[in-house]
Amino acid sequence: MASQTDGLIAIVKRDCPTCELVAPVLQRLKDTGVPFTIYSQDDPNFPDGMAGVVDDTTLEQSFHHDVEFVPTLIRREKGQEVERTFGWNREDWEKLTGIQGLGEGLPENQPGCGSKSVEPGVHELLQARYGEVPMKARKITYSSWDDPVEQAFSRGWTDGLPIVPPTDERILRMLQGTPRKPDEIVGIIPPDMKECTVEKVAINAVMAGCLPEYMPVVLAVVEAALDPKFCMHGLLCTLSYSGPVIVVNGPITKQIGMNWGHNCLGQGNRANATIGRTLQLIIRNVGGGRPGEIDRAVFGNPGKFTYCFAEDETDSTWTPLHIARGCKPGSNAVTLHQGHGLTSFSDNRSRTGEELARSLAMQLVNDIHPKVVQTPNVILCISPEHYRIFEQDGWDRAKIEEKLHEYTTRPGKDLVQGAHCVPEGVSPEKMKDMMPKFWRDHGLLIVRCGGTAGLLSAIIGGWSGGRNHDEIQPVTKEF
Amino acid sequence: MPAAASQAKSLGFEPAIKWVPHPIQNRTKDELAAIADAVYEPILDTLRGKII
Amino acid sequence: MAEELFMRDPTSEASSTLRTPVPFPADITGKTIALLDIAKERSDEFLDTLETRFVSQGFVVKRYRKASNSKNAAQDIVQAIVSEADIVVEGLAD
């Protein structure tokens, strides 16, 4: 709690030239006999030779007095602060103290320095220690002899990798990343159908390793996952491999340093890694969705740790995914796909759009099973070098999509159950039909990304739940 | 008993516990066997889920 | 005294703050019971009686002993119990 003394209070630190400058002024004020408390933020022996300086190396008093700069000079009367000034300005100091002729020989004014109590990350630590915090989540105590990382493992909070312990100062910092109130309910998380507040999102985001600036993306991801059309509950319970796959669009991808280039589907980028991880931790911790329990996946896939990347929007002639799906130009958005893994596609010989489209189609039709159609929705990641081939022929997104849908449509006679001695396949009544592999409206999501050299593209497979065209779809959320 | 409860709180883990009378070290062989015998059925009931 | 610290609970808080042990098997008939001697004085005698009773009711019993009552069980003992037994009964603390 803040000191209650009336009189003058000064907060200084040795590591501040202006505090050094005003040391004689502070001594003069002390010599007048007026009640005067001097707090030192970094060295109780500063100012040199001055008796009675109070050690505030814990910064508790600096926090309670809301100090942003040093030196700060405060006058209190009848238990209240009535005036303050900071830095050195002779006129202000004389007015505040009522004492004339201060600082003889000193310049008229000199700016102060930043207070230690507002250095990056420090204020939240002080708030957690000495102030009021908005968090309502239950406290899980441990002693300084314990390892909180191990505690989290043994409590089942992790995805198998270590988490960042969600201490109050970390959560406070994370909450700085959004203007939304901590007790605002973001949604109901399956399978336990539990309320998830912004605070719980922040706690899990801390654990995942997010920076506060990722919070707008994280919140949009959680809301998109809870859209009924995404069917998060079903996706969690499935025997299939799939989990949420997140594509991020908009200026925010650059602002928070996401990766859409080399190794964008792999490891190494904090935003890519931790945004996807946060959603999975929320499903696990708030929703209660855990492997072997509600999660019945036969294999799962490594993407269930995290699967999140950005689209390459550096080419202004390309229509980004979120714009193609109806978002406003310049907006940010996340698109959530129910999917898994990666199927490789290497074509070093196609030189025209036609050739490349036909070649891609040969690989695309294999998702889930070559003879299964209108079931998986997929993401096709086109690399820069493959895209250049389409671009040379003047193919834009719409043209690429049109051709890929055309070349992935095949005669029913090759796909019916029993065709080519394979029992799997479509109903025999489709024998005479031409069968598209993908739903025309949302079955094939094309994203430009990947490293600049390499005639490679990639296919992110889709969930078998996609066969329910109306009920289960990828979801795009603008924010 | 308070020590066990306190340690359980510190560790954040509460196993199923069965209590036996104190002291132990100075018991005769027969007395110790009787103490173990007396707690056997409660242990079994706990393992069977009949009691906590 | 060690300082008490805390983290905030990331879960829906539907369960106790205490960690939940793995449940006992639904049917313990004929299961293998690890009797873990925590190496306090007379623990072995106490467990001898329990072993006799368990065996008489058709359980398989395996005996293990910590090196010292003041330290955690060594990793090889823990791993042996995990791989060789279904249930652990440890004693005798006082």
Can you put this structure into words, describing what you see?
Chain A is of the alpha+beta class and 479 residues long. In chain A, 28% of the residues lie in helices and 21% in strands. Chain A has 16 helices and 21 strands. In chain A, strands 13, 14, 15, 16, 19, 20 and 21 form a 7-stranded mixed β-sheet that branches. A 5-stranded mixed β-sheet of chain A has the order 3-2-1-5-6, covered by helices on one side. Chain A starts with 6 loop residues before the first strand and ends with a strand. The relative contact order of chain A is 0.10. The mean pLDDT of chain A is 95. Chain B is mainly alpha-helical. Chain B has helices at residues 2-11, 29-47. The longest helix of chain B has 19 residues, at 29-47. Chain B starts with a helix and ends in a 5-residue tail after the last helix. Chain C is of the alpha/beta class and 94 residues long. Chain C has helices spanning 43-56, 75-84, and strands spanning 4-8, 32-37, 60-65, 87-91. Chains in contact: A-B, A-C, B-C. The interface between A and C is medium-sized, with 37 and 15 residues.
Q: In which range does the helix fraction of chain C lie?
A: 25-40%
Give the count of helical stretches of chain C.
2
Largest beta-sheet characterization of chain C: 3 strands, parallel
Shape estimate of chain C: globular
Q: Are there runs of chain A of 5+ residues with pLDDT below 50, and where?
A: none
Tell how many strands the DSSP assignment of chain C holds.
4
Number of helices of chain A: 16
Count the E strands of chain A: 21
Class based on secondary structure composition and strand pairing of chain C: alpha/beta
Fraction in helix of chain A = 25-40%
The dominant shape of chain A is elongated
Using only CA atoms, what is the Rg of chain A? 31 Å
Distance between the termini of chain C: 22 Å
Rounded radius of gyration of chain C (Å): 17 Å
Report a brief summary of the structure.
Chain B has 52 residues and is mainly alpha-helical. In chain B, 56% of the residues lie in helices and 0% in strands. At the A-B interface, strand 10 of A face loops of B.
Topology:
The complex is a heterotrimer of chains A (479), B (52) and C (94).
Chain A: E1 7-12, H1 17-21, H2 23-31, E2 36-40, E3 54-55, H3 60-64, E4 69-70, E5 72-77, E6 80-86, E7 88-89, H4 90-97, E8 109-110, E9 113-114, H5 122-130, E10 139-143, H6 148-154, H7 168-175, E11 185-189, E12 194-197, H8 198-208, H9 215-225, H10 232-237, E13 243-249, H11 252-255, H12 270-285, E14 308-310, H13 321-324, E15 333-346, H14 353-364, E16 378-382, H15 384-392, H16 397-407, E17 409-411, E18 434-436, E19 444-448, E20 456-462, E21 475-478
Helix pairs in contact in A: 5-7, 7-8, 8-9, 8-12, 9-12, 14-16
Chain B: H1 2-11, H2 29-47
Chain C: E1 4-8, E2 32-37, H1 43-56, E3 60-65, H2 75-84, E4 87-91
Parallel strand pairs in C: 2-3, 2-4
